[in-house]
Amino acid sequence: MKVGDWHKTHWVDEKGNRATIQDILLKLQDEPVVLLKIDDLTHISSVTIEEHKKQTADLSFPIIVVEKDGEFQSILDGHHRRQKAVDENRTHILAKVIRDKVI
C-alpha cells in the first residue's frame, strides 16, 4: 500500500460484503476508547510488521479490535501499534472494540 492509501483499506466477509475503514470508523464513532491488556491480545496473529511503520506508530490512537463471544478475535487496524507497545514493554493499549459483525 502506498503512503496515503490507508483510505482504501477494506475487509470482505464470507458472503462478499465489503466494509471500508471509513465504514468501520463511522460504526465506532460513538464507542468509547478503552484500555486493553496487551496480554489479552497475544493470541491474535499479526501481519508482517514493517520496522519504519512500527517506529512511527502513534500509540495515542486506539487500535480496532473485534470481539466475539467474549474473546478478542482479530485486530482490524493497529498491528504496528500493538507491536510497538509490546516492544516498549507496555502492559496496556488504547482500543475501540467492535462487538458484533463488522459488515
Question: How does this model look, in words?
Answer:
22% of the residues lie in helices and 29% in strands. With 103 residues, it is an alpha+beta fold. It has a single domain, classed as Alpha-Beta Complex (Conserved hypothetical protein from pyrococcus furiosus pfu- 392566-001, ParB domain). It has a four-stranded mixed beta sheet with strand order 3-6-4-5, covered by helices on one side. The relative contact order is 0.25.
Instruction: Catalogue the unreliable spans.
Output: none
CATH fold-level name: Conserved hypothetical protein from pyrococcus furiosus pfu- 392566-001, ParB domain
Number of strands: 6
Give the helix tally: 3
Order of helical and strand elements: EEHEHEEHE
Q: Mean of residue pLDDT? A: 88
Question: Main sheet, how many strands, which sense, barrel?
Answer: 4 strands, mixed
Q: Report the structural category.
A: alpha+beta
In the residues, how many domains can be counted?
1
Report the CATH architecture.
Alpha-Beta Complex
**Strand percentage:** 25-35%
Read across the widest sheet, the strand sequence of neighbours is 3-6-4-5
> Globular, elongated, flat, extended or rod-shaped: what is the shape?
globular
- Proportion of helical residues: 10-25%
CATH class: Alpha Beta
Question: What is the subunit arrangement here?
Answer: single chain
Distance between the termini: 22 Å
